[in-house]
Automatic annotation (TrEMBL):
SMART domains noted in UniProt: Aamy, CBM_25, FN3
Species, as recorded: Streptomyces lancefieldiae
Keyword Signal: yes
Domain Fibronectin type-III: 261-352
Signal peptide: 1-23
Database matches in Gene3D superfamilies: Glycosidases, Immunoglobulins
Region called Disordered, residue ranges: 134-155, 345-366, 380-401
Residue spans of biased composition, Polar residues class: 384-401
Cofactor: Ca(2+)
Keywords, in A-Z order: Carbohydrate metabolism, Glycosidase, Hydrolase, Metal-binding, Polysaccharide degradation, Signal
Protein name listed in UniProt: Carbohydrate binding domain-containing protein
Presence of keyword Hydrolase: yes
Family matches, as InterPro entries: CBM25, FN3_dom, FN3_sf, GH, GH13_cat_dom, Ig-like_fold
Amino acid sequence: MKPTPRRLLRPLAAFTAATGVLGLLTALPGSTGITPEPAAASATTATVFYYTKTKNWAAYNLHYAPDGGSWTSVPGVQMEAACTDWVRKTVDLGTAEGLQATFNNGSGTWDNNAGKNYDLGTGDITVKDGVVAHSDPCAGGGDPDPTPSPTPGDGGKATVYYSTEALGWTTANIHYQPAGGSWTAVPGVGMRPACAGWWKREVDLGAATTLKAAFNNGNGVWDNNRGADYTIGTGLSTVKNNTVTGNAGDPCAGEVPDTQAPSVPSQVTAKVDGVSVVLTWEPSTDDKGVAKYQVTRTGGTRGTLVTDVGSTVLSDANLEERTTYTYTVKAVDAAGNVSAASAAATATTGEKPPAPAPGKPLGTDPRKDPIYFVLTARFHDGDSSNNRGGSQHVKSGNAANNDPMFRGDFKGLIQKLDYIKGLGFSAVWVTPVVLNRSDYDYHGYHGYDFYKVDARLESAGASYQDLINAAHAKGMKIYQDVVYNHSSRWGAKGLFTPKTYGVRDSQWSWFYDEPNSSFEYDGLTVEPKSGKSYYNGDLWSTAEPTGNTCVDWGKPTQYTSPEGYRIYNCQWPSPTSGMFPKAFYHQCWIGNWEGEDSRSCWLHDDLADFDTESAPVQNYLIGAYNKYIDMGVDGFRVDTAVHVPRTTWNRRFLPAVQERVTQQHGAEAAKNFFVFGEVAAFVNDKWNRGSVNHSAQFFTWKERKEYAADDAKAALEMYDYEQQQGTGNQPTSTNAFLNGNSYHAPDHSRFSGMNVIDMRMHMNFGDAHNAFSNGKDSDDSYNDATYNVVYVDSHDYGPNKSSERYSGGTDAWAENMSLMWTFRGIPTLYYGSEIEFQKGKKIDCGPTCPLATTGRAYYGDHLQGDVRASEFGKVDSATGEVANTLSQPLVKHVQRLNEIRRAVPALQMGQYSTEGISGGMAFKRRYTSAGTDSFALVTVTDGATYTGIPNGTYKDAVTGDIRTVTDGRLTVAAPGKGNMRVYVLDGPGRIGTAGAYLK
């Protein structure tokens, strides 16, 4: 799960925290003295401004339909000149609240927002290169600044230059208040382009000598100097990177106007995939730099389409079948100079590909499959068109790094399955795939529609089903991360989604988007009226909604937001306000993380806690996850498992999984459908602070007695009973242990159906010896510790609850890996650890720092190039940067470890013992089944002596050394840190090639 602080968020604190997260650059300035925002135009009119510089059409027409009304006749109404680079048209909407719009040149060339049309509201609206904003770019009339700029000290006027170089805005407004006067109406007045990266506005101050100011992009993203506003004097001032320079020189004065167009794009190539076309071309050159490209498509029945692209790739999807399309590309620089059109590229589409068939789990013993864990959105970007930065893109610093939170996708993962296979992993654990809804939700743990895959992860030909099928075709499993404990703070679509109180007044209009009943949030599609893919207009209401249960709906409280705005009841999701019905959600905040309330209260204000003992909730979740079982996933990693009562797992959710897998895929698949839970216990002792109910091993067992038929009562009865029984009266198992040298059939009759992540080893992996000692000390308390999932660090924590990715050094990593790959349990590696990716970096700091500086950084740069692998642990070919990645010493180490583990069944599924063995990390393992008897002696780093072992011939899988034992005794010298010896009785001898550690 996404880590959350162990603190209590009361309603005011929750709202404050949330507005900090939602807060754009910072929130709307001018908390005092703002007059209510007047409409920029009549409530029934819209003045539409359209940017002309990059189109250079001979004429501009607006073709539109008021919401609920009819379209104008083609080509629409002619627009009129407004000011330099802009045309405009004011239209009467009657009683409509907006309009659908497209633009054309009157001769068959259209801009229809890539086929989606523009969805516009009322008032002043700008459409510039596909971006919709809300301002008047020509406020003041005429051409930009026809009068000379005032000289420094010239009273009554201020000439303000604002730099958007670091922000990437396409429009800039200045919202200001002369000293002693009133603030302008939000969003202020439009600034005009002055030169590359600079916007300019002359302000008449009257008798004042200073003004307060803030800037915005017309779409709700603000720069108000971190809440302090900017103080600007008369004369010429510049504002750049939160610094005001008074009496400054004109930043554009020395700049020679850029009149040179970029070079013509070359090598335009169109590749067809069904009804999709991928267009690529070589970058153009320009004396000041290319800002974007314009792709013109002709063909089909939809007319000519012009699309702006920021890269040299365009994915054009959902085209007509068996239709020829022609594409040309122009380059545009920051000054708006446009190159000539490229040579044309043509492509003829085929038939729309059928939906991929559902898969079937591979159905083999999960202990055979080492796991590679990826944050899908941060692994590899196969399709840039589904990248999304969300509300925190600028504030987090991700925008400055061109690193949107949703960057990687299933297409990128499919493209790099051979990389994972080449490392030797045969199972991939992916973060939750359901549609998320939150401010920073790339990790997937804020589920909103549990029945729908998040569109920001899918592409044409690369759906989630395609990923499952592609992995299975390579003999690789997919383990899906699932969440049963909570939804996003906006509830769960199809079960319950709350309405919050919200009013678009002079204080809160920046916070609440205009409602659009025809738009459905999917995380990917931009809602045109707000210009956001993270649109929230469907989540709030000024009028009290039907069936509202929130107390004191919309009444003002005594509290204010950090900006000084009045906070209202029911303005923010909370468990204690009555907003979330008791039938679906719990009604309290956690007070004691090792108490009963940790299973029946909210973890955090952004994680609405399901009442998992409620039948409607159980049915909703079981139905949702049945969908993914039907698709053929091979197992579930269960997030926040400790926050759901064991009785509910054992009565409802785990049996439902087994029943569905059996029904769809058969009994053998159900037997090996791997469920492993995150029972977070961040301590070094066997039982989590003495509480059995909060310890990982507790969840691997069935109940020991009958409880009330009512699930909520049963959960409390079980909790009390097991707490009274204490740690000394819990079931024990020998399933992980040899009986002398003999393997025995494990007894899984009391197994709950849930295996777990080995939290104790995880917490102690600061040193491999500690992890080994602590791990084996706990193993009698699990139902079967050979199924434990073992990792060093993850997307949450490093060892000892460190908030950084493991940085113990390459030798220590090699030692940890050697232990994980030979000791009981299933070795698991967090993406990039094979090259110590982001070692020592803070794993997660939310939107307070760029993702590129964290342990969740984008990994795809290390995967550039081509890689092919036909066997696990062996790379057939690799080119580009991925070849350098694969040459790293830990990569070679993990490849050989996987080769050895795959060849020795005892290392995969064997029971173990340390009886009769001396040495720091030494043990013996055996696995026996029909036709197989595998016995291995292992020592990691240290020397060891084994006594009482079977006589016979032992061969070391690392060196090939052969020992003949006649007296039940074998002594092995210390191989060195990270190295190991694996003497296999009647074994195959040396496996793989010597490397930096295994030699």
